[in-house]
Design a protein that fits this description.
Elements (H helix, E strand, L loop, with lengths): L10 E5 L4 H10 L5 E6 L11 E6 L5 H8 L4 E4 L15 H19 L11 E7 L22 H18 L4 E7 L1 E3 L12 H10 L4 E3 L6 E2 L1 E3 H13 L8 E3 L6 E2 H16 L6 E3 L19 H7 L7 H19 L1
Parallel strand pairs: 1-2, 1-4, 2-3, 4-5, 5-6, 6-11, 7-10, 8-13
Antiparallel strand pairs: 9-12
Length: 336
């Protein structure tokens, strides 16, 4: 008696798997019974878990290497970030290739192969965009219906990549979902890149005993979300993509944390961890290159995404800051 062979577990390729967000997403996916392909320019660690993980070291700005990295994938999680982060996009011509060119190649490669395995739907692409693509926030909170008027080269490039993905989705070549991320912070996953954002930068300053400086009076707000909660947003989108495909969706905690309050929380938490006096939080004159968006508040209404997926952030700001402080303090201790 012969039976039908069971369908293989879904194959998920994570582009940028050694990055700050990518390594957190990889860790979340490793807990699932899937085939997992960790793709990055530097080797990614194999995360323990039920997933069958393969590490692929590749420069996906090369189209042939990209094609190898996503061959046969049912899902592609696109979390690439060029060297130097968002600021490098202003002056580094190579940033456009990473931020836009790879997406252009990706939809061509995936679209050329037709339907998924066994005649299934086209590949699902989950793209990590940025809430800052909107430009100067026209209102609070943002809910995703605002017109996009990006102010920086990085945001223009992220928007261009998102538009390429959604156009390819409308054409039936892929099933694309744009997830616009807020200000992400937290401790890095083992073997992954560390956080280069404002929270970790201020924690490092406080651990060094230096004052925390702001370019404003501290009332400017940011929607601060822990990286584990962001990783959970990607797995939630993977589980319930139907209502998300073809759209861009804002991810956020909805708190709108005042940076002055966040910096004072960091100073207190570092003081508790080290036993030293809390460093000062000071206002200073901004540099000439500071973009106007640095002085505008951002709060995100992610209700549509939450309703479609059931996702909600679980880690409070004090807990997230404490975990970040503990991780960076341990790292500092190990270096001395």
């Amino acid at each position: 008696m012969t039976g039908t062979a069971p369908a293989p577990a879904p194959l998920i390729s994570v582009l940028g798997a050694s990055g700050f967000v990518g390594s957190a997403v990889l860790r979340a996916l490793a807990s699932r019974p899937v085939r997992l392909r960790a793709v990055a320019r530097r080797p990614s660690p194999v995360v323990p878990g039920p997933a069958e993980t393969t590490v692929v070291t590749a420069d996906v700005t090369d189209r042939a290497e990209l094609a190898r990295a996503v061959a046969g994938a049912d899902v592609v999680v696109h979390l690439l970030l060029g060297d130097g982060g968002w600021r490098a996009a202003e002056s580094d011509p190579a940033a456009e290739r990473v931020n836009v060119g790879v997406m252009r190649d990706l939809v061509d490669v995936l679209g050329a192969r037709g339907p998924g395995h066994a005649g299934g739907p086209p590949a699902l692409v989950l793209y990590g965009g940025a809430a800052s693509q909107v430009g100067v926030p026209p209102r609070e909170p943002l809910d995703g219906s605002e017109p996009d008027r990006p102010q920086t080269a990085y945001d223009r490039q992220k928007l261009a990549a998102e538009q390429i993905l959604l156009k390819a989705t409308a054409e039936g070549r892929v099933r694309g979902v744009g997830l616009r991320l807020p200000t992400v912070f937290g401790e890095g996953a083992a073997g992954g890149a560390g956080d280069r954002g404002v929270v970790s930068a201020m924690v490092r300053q406080a651990l060094a005993g230096r004052p925390l400086t702001m370019w404003h009076d501290g009332t400017v707000r940011r929607d601060l979300v822990h990286v584990e909660d962001v990783a959970d947003a990607f797995t939630a989108a993977l589980d319930r993509p139907e209502a998300l495909v073809g759209g861009r969706h804002l991810i956020g905690a909805g708190r709108g944390d005042a940076l002055g309050d966040a910096f004072r929380l960091i100073a207190r938490t570092v003081a508790e961890r080290t036993g030293r006096r809390a460093v000062a939080v000071e206002c200073v004159e901004p540099p000439a290159h500071a973009p106007v968006t640095d002085f505008r508040s951002v709060t995100i209404d992610s209700a549509p995404f939450r309703a479609a997926t059931g996702w909600h952030p679980r880690i409070s700001l004090p807990e997230g800051v404490r975990r970040t402080v503990d991780a960076l303090a341990r790292q500092q201790d190990e270096q001395h």
